[in-house]
Every structure is written in C-alpha cells, then in structure tokens.
From TrEMBL, chain B:
Keywords: ATP-binding, Cytoplasm, Glutamine amidotransferase, Hydrolase, Ligase, Nucleotide-binding, Purine biosynthesis
UniProt-listed PROSITE patterns: GATASE_TYPE_1 (PS51273)
Protein origin, superkingdom: Bacteria
Classification lineage: Bacteria, Bacillati, Actinomycetota, Actinomycetes, Pseudonocardiales
CDD domains: GATase1_FGAR_AT
Purpose: Part of the phosphoribosylformylglycinamidine synthase complex involved in the purines biosynthetic pathway. Catalyzes the ATP-dependent conversion of formylglycinamide ribonucleotide (FGAR) and glutamine to yield formylglycinamidine ribonucleotide (FGAM) and glutamate. The FGAM synthase complex is composed of three subunits. PurQ produces an ammonia molecule by converting glutamine to glutamate. PurL transfers the ammonia molecule to FGAR to form FGAM in an ATP-dependent manner.
GO cellular component: cytoplasm
EC number assigned by the record: 6.3.5.3, 3.5.1.2
Subunit structure of this chain's protein: Part of the FGAM synthase complex composed of 1 PurL, 1 PurQ and 2 PurS subunits.
SMART domains for this protein: GATase_5
Any Pfam family the entry gives: GATase_5
Protein name: Phosphoribosylformylglycinamidine synthase subunit PurQ
Pathway(s) of this molecule: Purine metabolism; IMP biosynthesis via de novo pathway; 5-amino-1-(5-phospho-D-ribosyl)imidazole from N(2)-formyl-N(1)-(5-phospho-D-ribosyl)glycinamide: step 1/2
Active site annotation, chain numbering: C85 (nucleophile), H194, E196
Automatic annotation (TrEMBL), chains C, D:
Record organism: Saccharothrix australiensis
UniProt cross-references to Pfam families, sorted A to Z: PurS
One GO MF term attached to the UniProt entry: ATP binding
Documented EC number(s): 6.3.5.3
Function: Part of the phosphoribosylformylglycinamidine synthase complex involved in the purines biosynthetic pathway. Catalyzes the ATP-dependent conversion of formylglycinamide ribonucleotide (FGAR) and glutamine to yield formylglycinamidine ribonucleotide (FGAM) and glutamate. The FGAM synthase complex is composed of three subunits. PurQ produces an ammonia molecule by converting glutamine to glutamate. PurL transfers the ammonia molecule to FGAR to form FGAM in an ATP-dependent manner.
Family, per entry: Belongs to the PurS family.
Name by which UniProt lists this protein: Phosphoribosylformylglycinamidine synthase subunit PurS
InterPro entries the record matches: PurS, PurS-like_sf
Gene name per UniProt: purS
Alphabetical UniProt keywords: ATP-binding, Cytoplasm, Ligase, Nucleotide-binding, Purine biosynthesis
Length: 599, 223, 79, 79
C-alpha cells in the first residue's frame, strides 16, 4: 500500500483522478490544480470535494443568502453577537445571558436509515450549539413525511420519531416543539430538520478559530471509523485492490452514540468553565476536512496536523478516509500548550479519549502529514471558504400561473348541514390531527426548565432560575402556500412563528431557518428559492428582527419531482419572567370572552 | 438534612433531584459515580437518566460503580434511599429492591403526565401523603415495565410494599400496575415516575411530587 | 484468542413484547407459518486463552444477563 | 414445527456503542482478558414445517435485520 503524498503528486502530474465520481466538475478540478500548482493528492482531493459540495460550500445559495446580511440594519443587528457565517447565531437577551440557536437538515440520511439518520441529525445540531460555548438546553424537530397511509411512511416515520427521541432523550434535552406534516411530495424524501437552542454567559462565547502560534490542536470524543465515507472510497480502489470492492459498498450511514455525546457535552462545558479552550469546532459533515480547514482559515496562522495520531476504530484506513470520515461525537479544540495537561485531565475524568493531533504554525498553510510524509499542503481558505460560487439560472415555473388561477372560488360551498361533517373530516386529517403519538415519545421535562412545550404554540424554557428570565421558540412553514407563492409563503412562515412566540408572552428577537428545496439545477426551484429568501428577508426587515443563521438543503426530490418548497422558519423570543407565560387554549374557565384580532 | 444526589456518566435528572431537595429545605450534596464515600449524607437519591447509555440493560453497568457499593452498605444500616426511573432500575440491578424493569409493552418511550395512587404511607419517603391519595406526576421511560416472579409479587402485595400504583391506565405493562415499591424496612423506595419533575406547577403538571422530599425531612429529623 | 458467544433470552414466563411484536407483524407482511417468536440478545466476545469457563459463566450470570428475568447460554466457537 | 434461530449483528465497520459499553465495563468489574465485545439480537422462531429456507432468508433480510447496518445468520436447530 502506498500513500499518495505531495511529493508523489508532483512527480505524477498526469495521473488520472476520480474527481467526477467525487462530485467535482471539470472546471472545479482545474481550479484546484491551479490553486495548488500541481495535481491534488488523494487526501487533498477528498478534502476539496467534500468542502466544495453543495452541502458544505453553499455554492448555489451563497449569492442569494447575501441578501439577508444586506437587508439587516444596524438596529436589527444591535442584539446580535454572532451571525451568518458562524456555527450558529448568538443573541444577547439581557442580564448577561446570550442565546444561541440553529436548525439543520438531515433529510437524505433519514430516508436511507430513519432511526440513525434522525438520531445523528439531532447529534450534529447539538454539537454546533456546544461549539459556540453554550450549554445545549432544548431541541425541536420540524418533520415532513409522505402521505400518512403510504407504505413507506410506515417505515420512515416510526424510525425517525424513535431516532429523534432516542438521541435527544438520552442527552437530557427536552423536546419543546416541532412539526409533523404530510404531503405526497415528501414520500421519497422526508424532511428531518432539527433545531437546538443553548445558553451561555455573554463573556463565554467561543468562536471557532485557531490563533496563536504554538497552540495545540486536540481531537477529543469518539474514535474515527469508516462512517459516512461511501463517496471517498473510490479513492481507495487504486491503492487497495483486494478490499476495494468491499469498501465501495460501504453505506454512508453513521451510527450515533448519544451516551458518548452526553459525556462529550459535560466534558466540554467543564473545559470551557476552566478556560482551557482558545477555539473550538465540532466535527459534523466532512469531519476533519471541515474542522481543520475551517479552524485554520479562521485563525491568524497556519496549521500542522499529524493525521496518523488520530485514534481509529477500523484497520487500514487511508489518509483520505480519515479526513472524510463522518464518525459522530467528536470535537476539535485549540489549546494553549501550558493548558494541555489540564485539558487532558478533564477528559480523563469524563473517560473521553483526547489526542493532540497538531499545532498552530506560522505562515498560512494547512499541512497534514501521515507517518512523516506530507499528504496535504493547501491554503486553508481555498478549502473552507473560497469554493466555487454559482449563479444558477432562475425561471418562474411555467405552471405557476395555472396553479394560482386554481382558487377556492371554484370549489362548491358546503351547505349548512354539511359543515359539521367538514369539521370532523378536517379534524381527523393527518395534518390537523393530534400529534401526540409523536410527541409522547419525547421527554419534555428533563432538567426542569420547560415552561411550555407541546401542545403549546411555542416552546418556552427558563434560562435563569434566580430571575425567571426565559426564551420561547416556534418553527413553522406551510409548503403548499409556499408553492403557490414562495415570497409570501416564506413571509407567512415567519409571521406564523412570530405570532406563536408573541402569543406565548415573549418578545420575538431573532430568526433562524432551514431552507429545504429541490434541485438547484432546476431553474424553477431556484426561482422558488430566490423568492423565498427575499420574502423572508423583507419580512424580517418589516418586523425588525434579524436572521442570525440557517441552513440550506437542496436536491430534495424524487426523480424530477421536487418537494414542496419548505423554508422552515424558527423565531426566538425573550420573556423576562416566565411565570407570566400565556398557555395555549381557551375554555379553561367558564365565561371567558373570545376576541378576534386582525382582519 | 443533607441528601446525596448521585451522578453517573449519562445521568440526566440529577439537577432536578437536587432542586427538589432544595425545595424541601434540604441541602443537596453531589456524589460522583467514582466516589468511595457518601460524604456524611443523611439520605441518597439515585436520579433518572441513561447511566452508561443504558446499554446492555438499564442500570446494569451503573450498579457496579464504586459509589453504589457505599449505597448498598448504607442502605443495610437503614439509610433512606430513593431511586427514580433509571435510579429505580439501578436499585433493582443492585438487589436493593426485588424484580426488574423491562421494555414497555408498546415498545415506545412514553412521556406523559401520569396519575398514581399512594398505597403505603409508612416509608421514609411517603409519610406526608394520605393513604389512597392520587397524585399526578410525569412518567418518561422506555423500560418501565415492572416484572417479578409470582412469589415475589405475592410477597410485595402481602407485605404492603407496593408504594405507588398506576391509575387511569397502565402505561408500560407493569405487573399489578406497579409504579413503585419499597424494601422490607420501608427505607429504600424505587419508582418509575418522576416526582422531582412535579414540584412546581410552572415546570411540571403539579407540585404533587414534593411530598416525597418533605417526607424525607420528617424521616431524617425523627431519626 | 478464543471466540465465545453468549445468548440471553427472556425467561419463558416473562412477557416478551418485542418478540410478540415481530410475531404479530409477520402475517401482515405476508409471512405465514411462524408460530412464535422470542427476541433476546446475542453477544460475541473475543477472549484471551486463559479465560476459563468458570469466568465466562460468571460474566454471563452476573453481568450480561439479569437472572431475575433472563436465561442465558455460553458457547465457545471453534476458530 | 421446527426451531429456527436468527442472529443479527451490527456490521463490522459499523459503530457498536452497546458492545463497546460492555467491553469497557468488564475490566472495571474485575473481568480481564476480554479483548472485544459486539452485541446483536438473537431471535428464536417456531415455524411450521412447510416454511422453507428461502422464506426464512426473506424474513431475516427484510424484517429481522436492517441490511443497511446489520449482518444476519439463519440456523435451523434440531429438536
Ligand atoms: N415533531 C414534533 N416534535 C415536537 N413537537 C411537535 C412535533 N410536531 C408537533 N409538535 C407540537 O405539537 C403541538 C401541536 O402541533 P400542531 O398540531 O402542528 O399545532 P399547530 O397547528 O398549532 O402548529 C405543538 O406544540 C407542536 O410544537
């Protein structure tokens, strides 16, 4: 077995590389060669290909997402401590408290393996929140499924719900809300969006950066295995002939270990408390490729990583595989040399494996070695932030007018005596029926801070037991409205979440989103996306609250049929005394007066 | 009153148990799974959660923790011990209480507000309740089905050692609707539902659960 | 190194909701003729050669199984 | 009636947190010499005599095991 080193790459400039199988276009591959002045090594190719994927690089959405920042005024920004571009948005809620919250999608993995896909979706977003320096406090799970009576929904729904519950319950994070929506377009493409909210003292905000020459890079948490490297295994075929066939069949399924994550959370919080961490990054999609290149490019120096020191779970892994592995429950910290012993002691207390895998260096290169041979030597920004940017064609779908012309005016009006039946039919329809079968599988009480949860309009948690300060959260989206008018549909989602938060007694302060759409290569989908972003951003300006972060999930389609455009919007509100919350529901006491507000 | 609250890796409800102790004017003393002494506490709570991930069987790994050896010794001398949910499972695995807890009959994790009847008010943890009182507290567990052989069940029933019974529907297939039991001397109590989540109507369905912690106060003061 | 298998099953008199759920689902999926299903755990251990049968029995009885509700069988597998 | 056993195990390359937790606990409990533990499921079925091997293989693959992350073995047991 030979390792493809930088030296080897220099000597074999014409070696064919499977960049297409890794999802890179001809011009993208050419650009990598131009950046490096040579062909990339296998390991470099693995890094660039995952980091330049749609999921990591936002190459189709970037030009549109800019609109959020452009429309955010200084006034809207006043309470924002971290915004788009960071792991998660952070807002100042007063009394010295900062709240961080973010949503992320785990749609495709949850279709392939519902339980583990959903479980690791929750695990990933929780580590994002942890990486901001916050204690994760609660989760929410906006879900979309195919028709309730479709055979595959019987496979997908119970698994996803058990996965969200199994992982979240075991972490001790109350589930304070979410959505369950059925529509035929989600049949081969369920949506699993997971939101996590956390709190910290303002001064404890940790941003991901690797500054300070000589500081150590410590990888801690689970061992690294062959999880989720299905794609990269094409690289192994050249060096690993006899096992290549086997490797290629590797599923891109990751298995979660919530117990390890729970311990990782408590261990990390103790490390923060003891001030042993200079910078930190979670390992999610794209694993070490992402963590090392993002940490290095956000710092003020270069970085050196001894990849062979990474503790492995499988024998015979190549450097490309180690870099691409999506093994869960890992974090990467930047630590001052004099703090390394104390850092290791905290990890030992929690039985967490921790390994010094590198250091911050002078200069501006990310250099990764494998048994003393250089396998990666790149400018980290070109991996993490300077990926391709596309201006995808945009076109209003041809059927849009026809769809909009088909209004309820054409439907027969129910007669008076049919109304009761109509109400019963509506109440029994899966989209309006009680969601208790789902929510009963989620722990909403753990840690004793939950003030409102299902079936309330928004979830509410107490942040500070001495002052009773708290936050409320709601996520919403109606994909059918959004299909009819993506601009107004996104605004409706925002308005609904905003109202849900306001009616619980909290003041809305910030917005996150999870934008689920079909293929960006479809001009009609790109039109929906552009409209939805504009609508959401303009709506936020009207309401005076900023979008602090979000997530884009493209390619949600079955064959040529895209899902309903589903821009899930999450609104965060603040309440200075949770005892003044307003529970949902009418009719608690006789003689209540019902008032209708608005038109 | 100093009450030890044990934290194993994977314990979740230790903060809630400690809060409940405080609500009853007690002092909560954190105990770590690797501790070899109980720091002079008057009583111990083994709280809920997923100790060691509940891998293998709920409570199976936790019962071997060093601190549990101390708890077993102290219980033998009459120290009041309360196991809630995962804590109940640990106490069964450690043979401080008979029987075992198995997967819910419907196979799903269940989180709901559950009515319980208090059937024994002679234990260290239930003296503040009236016999037959019905209380509403959260239940949240996936392995809450209480199982024991016929002899053990007959013994528990005959000696009045069923402390709490589910009413308004058995949520998990427990034999005889058993939600909680006690040791022969009434000092060790284990139950699946979570009284520590029902100490304040702001964050729980009721404050019905506070009675356990106030009862302990009486037991410790009178001891 | 020796390979050892330990199978742990719910005692016959103990309710086995998992096995029952499987048994109930099979006819719905079009599989007939399965009279009963019981579900337990299967462990595969790699043990050093000096670990004797007594030690293995101890591990199974005191740890892998809960004798209150479960039976168990230990088998050595020839390599 | 025939007795059939199906053992379902996590694939070797897939993380097995349960087996790992058991393996980590053993030395703490004073049991040494156990190099590795993997945990899976063990099913015992009673099947009618006309259920053939193909049907059993189908049941194992499509229902008892999740082929994305698990391997399985079907064995008939002589009564
Ligand atoms: N997947 C889910 N996870 C957690 N809570 C959920 C989920 N789906 C729905 N809920 C909760 O159930 C309650 C009712 O949901 P829903 O019927 O969708 O209400 P609404 O139509 O008022 O939004 C809400 O509190 C909501 O947060």
């Amino acid at each position: 077995m030979t390792t493809d080193t930088v030296k080897n790459a220099e000597n074999t400039p014409d070696q064919e590389q499977p960049y297409k199988e890794l999802g890179l276009k001809d011009d993208e591959y050419a650009r990598i060669r131009e950046i490096l002045g040579r062909r990339p090594t296998d390991a470099e190719l693995a890094m660039y290909s995952v980091m330049w994927s749609e999921h990591c690089s936002y190459k189709s959405s970037k030009v549109h997402l800019k609109y959020f920042s452009e429309t955010t005024t200084d006034e809207m920004r006043a309470k924002m401590l971290a915004g788009i571009g960071e792991n998660a948005g952070v807002v100042d809620i007063g009394d010295g408290w900062a709240i961080t919250f973010k949503a992320e999608s785990h749609n495709h993995p949850s279709y392939v393996e519902p339980y583990q896909g959903a479980a690791t979706g929750v695990g990933g977003i929780v580590r994002d929140i942890l990486a901001m320096g916050a204690r994760p406090l609660a989760v929410m799970d906006p879900l979309r499924f195919g028709p309730a009576d479709a055979p595959d929904t019987r496979r997908v729904l119970p698994g996803i719900v058990a996965g969200v519950g199994g992982y979240g319950n075991c972490l001790g994070l109350p589930n304070i809300g979410g959505e369950v929506v059925f529509d035929a377009t989600y049949a081969g493409n369920p949506l699993v969006n997971a939101l996590c909210v956390g709190a910290m003292r303002v001064e404890d905000l940790h941003l991901a950066h690797a500054s300070g020459t000589g500081n150590k890079i410590i990888l801690y948490g689970a061992r690294t295995g062959l999880d989720g490297i299905g794609g990269v295994s094409v690289l192994a075929s050249e060096t690993f002939d006899d096992t290549a066939g086997k490797r290629k069949k590797l599923p891109s399924v990751q298995v979660g270990d919530p117990f390890t994550e729970k311990v990782l959370i408590e261990c990390s919080l103790e490390l923060f408390r003891e001030k042993l961490v200079v910078g930190i990054q979670d390992l999610g999609g794209a694993g070490l490729s992402c963590a090392t290149s993002e940490l290095a490019s956000a710092g003020d120096g270069g970085m050196r990583v001894y990849l062979d020191r990474v503790p492995l779970r499988a024998a015979g892994m190549t450097p490309a595989e180690v870099l691409s592995s999506e093994s869960q429950e890992r974090m990467c910290a930047v630590v001052r040399p004099e703090d390394v012993d104390a850092f290791m002691a905290v990890c030992a207390k929690w039985d967490v494996i921790a390994t010094e895998i590198g250091e911050v260096t002078e200069g501006d290169r990310l250099v990764i070695t494998w048994h003393d041979e250089v396998v990666v030597d790149v400018p980290p920004r070109t991996v993490a932030h300077e990926g391709p940017v596309y201006h995808r064609p945009i076109e209003r779908p041809a059927d849009q007018d026809e769809l909009r012309a088909n209004t309820p005016d054409a439907l027969p009006r129910p007669a008076r005596d049919e109304l009761l039946d109509l109400v019963k039919t509506m109440a029994a329809s899966p989209n309006l029926a009680s969601k208790r079968w789902v929510t009963q599988q989620y722990d909403r009480y753990v840690r004793g801070g939950t003030v409102l949860a299902q079936p309330s309009d928004s979830g509410m948690i107490r942040i500070d037991e001495s002052t009773n300060r708290g936050v409320a959260l709601s996520t919403d989206c109606n994909g059918r409205y959004t299909r009819l008018d993506p601009y107004a549909g996104a605004q409706l989602a925002l308005a609904e979440a905003y109202r849900n938060v306001a009616t619980s007694g909290a003041t809305p302060v910030a917005v996150t989103n999870c934008l689920n759409f079909g293929s960006p290569e479809d001009p009609g989908v790109m039109w929906q996306f552009e409209q939805a972003v504009k609508g959401l951003a303009d709506g936020c300006v009207a309401l005076g609250i900023p979008v602090t972060g979000g997530n884009v999930s493209f390619y949600n389609q079955t064959g040529a049929t895209a899902i309903l455009p589903t821009p899930v919007v999450g609104v965060l509100g603040v309440i200075d005394d949770v005892r003044r919350r307003i529970p949902t529901g009418v009719g608690a006491e006789a003689g209540e007066t019902l008032l209708l507000l608005g038109e | 009153m100093r009450v030890g609250v044990i934290t194993f890796p994977g314990t979740l409800d230790d903060v809630d148990a400690a809060r409940a102790v405080k609500y009853a004017d007690g002092e909560a003393v954190p105990l770590w799974h690797a501790d070899h002494d109980l720091k002079g506490v008057d009583a111990v709570i083994v709280p809920g959660g997923f100790s060691y991930g509940d891998y293998l069987r709920a409570g199976a790994i936790a019962r071997f923790a060093p601190v549990m050896r101390e708890v077993v010794d102290a219980a033998a001398k009459g120290m009041p011990v309360l196991g809630i949910c995962n804590g109940f499972q640990v106490l069964c695995e450690a043979h401080l209480l008979p029987g075992a807890l198995t997967r819910n009959d419907k196979l799903h994790f269940v989180c709901r507000d559950q009515w319980l009847r208090v059937e024994n008010t002679e234990t260290a943890w239930t003296s503040r309740y009236e016999r037959g009182a019905e209380i509403l507290v959260p239940l949240k567990s996936g392995e809450g089905g209480y199982q024991a052989d016929a002899d053990t069940l007959a013994e528990l029933e005959g000696e009045g050692r069923v402390v709490f019974r589910y009413v308004g529907g058995n949520p998990n297939g427990s034999r005889n609707d058993i939600a909680g039991i006690t040791s022969a001397n009434g000092r060790v109590v284990g139950l699946m539902p979570h009284p520590e989540h029902a100490i304040d109507a702001l964050t729980g369905p009721t404050d019905d659960g506070l009675g356990l912690f106030l009862s302990l106060l009486d037991a410790v003061v009178s001891a | 190194m020796a390979r050892v298998v330990v199978d742990v099953m719910p005692k016959p008199e103990i309710l086995d909701p998992q096995g029952q759920a499987v048994a109930n689902a099979l006819p719905r999926l079009g599989f007939d003729g399965i009279a009963s299903v019981r579900q337990g755990k299967h462990f595969e251990l790699e043990v050093a050669d000096d670990v004797d049968d007594a030690a293995l029995a101890k591990i199974a009885e005191s740890f892998l199984a809960n004798p209150v509700i479960e039976d168990w069988v230990v088998r050595r597998i020839d390599a």
